[in-house]
Structure of DUF3499 domain-containing protein:
Amino acid sequence: MRSPRRCSRNGCPRQAVATLTYVYNESTAVVGPLAAFAEPHTYDLCEPHARSLTAPRGWDVVRHEGEFEPPPPTTDDLVALAEAVREAARPAPPRPDEIEHDPHSGPQTGRRGHLRVIPPSH
Ligand SMILES: [Zn+2]
């Protein structure tokens, strides 16, 4: 049985969700969604390593902007499926765009939940 793809960084046990490709003739490191097949000059990375990757001196990094999805399961890869389900079940830290934020409310103006402070009429 084939094991799920792991991050290629030394000692990193996490599941790979992205593929780093070195495009040597353009001095560019491309971090994209996990490639279907491993190719020369490609390295699988977990999400933290994919997000924190920095290019070697003189190189550019082109990073996939968006969520890295775990690879879709294949019928002969139940271990990967179980792994993906476990990953999905794990509580993730809130992303900045999910944190409730109303740019128009400004500083606290007496609005708390469903209660409103009614200014005195006299
Ligand atoms: Zn990693």
